[in-house]
Amino acid sequence: MNIDGKDIDKMREIDFVSSELWQLAEQVETDIADEFAEIHRIQQTNEQKVLQAFRSHRISEGHLMETTGYGYHDRGRDGLDHLFAEVFDAEDALVRPHFVSGTHALTVALFGVLRPGDRLISITGAPYDTMEEVIGLSGNNNGSLKEFGVRYEQLELLKDGTPDFAAIEQRVAGAKVAYIQRSRGYSLRPALPVSVISRIATLVHRVSPETIVMVDNCYGEFVDTVEPTSVGADLMVGSLIKNAGGGLAKSGGYIAGKKRWIEQAAYRLTSPGMGKEVGASLGQNRAMYMGLFFAPSVVASSVKVSAFSVKLFEQLGFGGYPQKGEVRSDIITALQLGSAEALIAFCEGIQSGSPIDSYVHPEPWEMPGYQEKVIMAAGTFTSGASIELSADAPLKEPYAVWLQGGLTYYTGKMGVLLAAQSMIDRGFGTISK
Ligand SMILES: *Cc1c(COP(=O)(O)O)cnc(C)c1O
Questions:
Q1: Over the stretch 247-265, which tens digit does the pLDDT of each residue have?
Q2: CB 221 near ligand 1, within 6 Å
């Protein structure tokens, strides 16, 4: 808008970051217009699926109400299970605020279906860090699957980050659970496309029809138009303070898949015989319904923030993942910034661009379980919610920062620009003319 001959909007932009950086950002957005168009196409398909599920299950005001006590006949809780099952093309689902985290939902699913003497085989290498103590790979083994007599085996990914199909074919027979992690997590391997998960599921079921194909779907929901359970996975698990909660769920997780395994997981979450029939929703239904409704849009914003940041940092001279042409299958970005100082500058910028605690100064700290210091940036409405813009970087080789989230595209973009400016101000990265 022009007032007294001054372009007020332009002044505001330049106030935020340098005009050179702002111009570069505009160029980057033009360069990746085709990627954005593809993200919007996926978003539209997913929003249609979600709206259709609300219509077909006749969700009404009554579903949004609170229940207390045992929570018998909680229509809202049951309706939410139906919605998730439909949207994920699953037979059934267990969607609860009572899951304290993604790790808890994964744990409930594993303990729900595994019995002493069974074998669990991970076919995508080492699982997410927090699963190590659950399986019994680290820690004191108190209460782990190992302590309960569940055996564990791990197939490594090939050098290019793809699954070893030959090894799967040789080793999967007789395993109770074949475990797949879709997201790259905090590694530099690529996220597994749903099409590859489909190939794995087909192979596993051919060689070993009784084996349960279970997918850790954290960070993956709504990044594509189909989910692992649409293409052969028997069980799929995720967190509601990541993608599937749309930034609105205050806590919780979900398990979706074959009815038989959902029942076993529900028996583990509550108790045998009671399963899904109990559990007061304690006023969380409305946020979880709205969260699912918003999730495809929020995930699309996060994926756009990722695409924008990879391209922007490439222009500034830094490598990033996912690389051009890679199929996107999670919301995570890894940027290789080259030094500890650059990582710190980046995280300070992200923190300063957060809606909550923007004035806080993040410090590297000795995180339990890590050899080197780690710096994190997050200023979120929901504590620890990584569907909101956030970044983590261990201060060691390969000096990479993992960035994820963005409730809206433009606020995410601002955060990333502040991170870039913070680096440029300290001499990291240059804008080539
Ligand atoms: C986040 C995440 C989990 C679970 O983590 P929580 O912090 O317990 O929610 C598991 N696997 C992957 C790949 C994740 O990204």
A1: 999 999 999 999 999 999 9
A2: no
